Amino acid sequence: MRSLRVAFLILVLCPPVLFAADRSVTLQDALQAALGHNHLVSGARFEQEAAERGAAASRSRYFPHIFLEEGFAVSDAPVRVFMMKLDQGRFTLDDLQLENLNTPSSYRDFRTAVTLEQPLFDLSIGYDREMAEKEAERAGFVLAQRREDVGLAVYAAYLDVQKGRATLAATEKEVAEARESLRVAQARSREGTALRSDELRARTFLSESEQRTITALNDLRLARMRLALAVGGEAGESLDIAEELTSAPVRLSENELVREALANRSDLKGGEKNVARAEAAVGAARSAWFPTVYAGASYQMNDRDIPLGRDNDAWMAGVNLRWELFDGLRRSHDQARAGAVRQAALQYLEQQRKEVVLRVREAALRREEAGKRLEVARHALLAADEGMRIVAKRYENGLATMVELLDAQSALNRSRTGLVERESDYLLATARVYHAAGLFLKETVK
Q: Would you give the DSSP letter of residue 104?
């Protein structure tokens, strides 16, 4: 009991020491820091960048591709030796002798080539580019939705700190009132108008109140650490709040919120881009039935002794048409698969729209419920406070027992912490309404 009392005094009397390093931030500062430094937002931002780079890479297929090749070969195969000498310009009349043609000595060749390839007609390039661009757009909407989600998480963490401070204030009042009940019980015990058991009950109740205060202090400290983590700080850092959040009315009706959600939610827009990407994939599968036409050119140097040497050189230019006539029904199955993927994307999007409507209506109902619970909690606190005042007077005058006094004190304590919970729930329920409609950052970040 003594060690518990010492720990309680340290926590209560030295909070500036415990939280001296805490930096206070407003909600706007916390949201701006999170949108810039939160790892989830940063990860989504890098995913968007990767998708944009992929889209840029897909457009590069329209441009000519140029290759530099350097190769070395040594052989005594008649055809290979024959071609090497021709490429190097070293073919002589002696090489036409049957013995030299049939059983030549080993020969080596360094081949240097610059090759150019230019697509002239390839439908798959356009569809692949469209797929990559839709994926990049989808990644942008994923980032926007991640920002909304992180913003709500920061708001909830900020609200937890506010709730922690209010809970701590309520438990400190509880301790002060428990001490007063103990003082009255001790005074009445000395006067002989109360039992010794009343004093013991009051002392036990005070110890329980002190324990709840220690828990409230730790909860507040953890809430500050979670807020720091939510805004992108390091593990173990701590942030305090610089302002108290207050409730504001929702300016839109439920039907207007539904319309805003269907028009603005980033995850729905991302789903639409996923459908568009699937449409492009169908086109890409269909393009496999058409021929491709590519132009090509090359410049070649051959040397017997050194790389990049030039005993002889040559060039070539031409156009190549390639048309796959039979593939074992692969293209038919690929086209059917792409169509099925498109239908799946459409079905998922439709279900997502229905769920969004349900989430908006649920958030609105939960906010209405939270408002009514808040009103009940306020009335309950008024009643509990008045009941505590009456029972305390009755106990001082010997008209009530210690059990009745402590019951009234417990009811008052529950009402105080309950009101703190209901106020926090109502604020968070309002934020969730805007989040469900895809308007959280728009309404919060000014």
A: P
In the chain, DSSP finds a helix count (H) and a strand count (E) of 13, 6
Distance from C-alpha of 193 to C-alpha of 184, rounded to nearest angstrom: 11
Please tell me the chain's helix, strand, coil percentages from 3-state DSSP, rounded to the nearest 5.
Answer: 70, 10, 15
Burial bucket for residue 262 (CB in 10 Å: 0-12, 13-18, 19+) = middle
What is the pLDDT averaged over residues 109-125? 95
Q: Which residue has the tokens 């071609």?
A: 83
Contact 177, 219 (CB under 8 A): no
Q: Report how far residue 277's alpha carbon sits from residue 140's, in angstroms, rounded to the nearest whole number.
A: 14
Q: What's the whole-model pTM score? A: 0.84
CA-to-CA distance for 441 and 429, rounded, in angstroms? Answer: 15
Helix (H, G, I), strand (E, B) or coil at 318: strand
> Could you identify the residue written with the tokens 């828990």?
215
How is the beta sheet containing 107-121 ordered, strand by strand? 65-75, 107-121, 292-303, 312-322
Lookup result for tokens 């106020």: 423
d(CA 162, CA 268): 33
Q: Are 318 and 295 within 8 A, CB to CB? A: yes
Torsion of CA 61, 65, 71, 77, to 10 degrees: 80
Q: Which residue has the tokens 């005993």?
A: 311
Classify burial at 352, counting beta carbons within 10 Å of its beta carbon; exposed 0-12, middle 13-18, buried 19 or more. Answer: middle
SS3 92: coil
Q: Are 440 and 431 in contact (CB under 8 A)?
A: yes
- Give me the pLDDT at residue 360, please: 96
Cα–Cα dist 35/50, whole Å: 19
Give the three-state DSSP class for 324.
coil
124-138 tens-digit pLDDT: 999 999 999 999 999
Longest dimension (CA), the chain: 138
Residue whose structure tokens are 């017997």: 304
* Phi, psi torsion values for 103, nearest 5 degrees: -130, 70
Provide the pLDDT confidence category of residue 312 given band limits of 50, 70 and 90. very high
Q: What distance lies between CA 151 and its chain's CA centroid?
A: 10
Q: Identify the band that residue 6 occupies on the pLDDT scale cut at 50, 70 and 90.
A: very low
What are the residues facing 116 on neighbouring strands?
66, 297
